[in-house]
Amino acid sequence: MNLERDIVDDLKRILARYQILTPNNFAERGWPDKLIQLPNSRVVACELKRVFVNKGNYYTLGELRQEQCAWLAKWQFHGGLGFVFVGMISNDKLLGYHCIAMNKWDSWLTANKQKYYAVDILADEDVLRWFIDYARGV
Question: Based on the structure, what is the number of domains in the chain?
Answer without folding.
Answer: 1
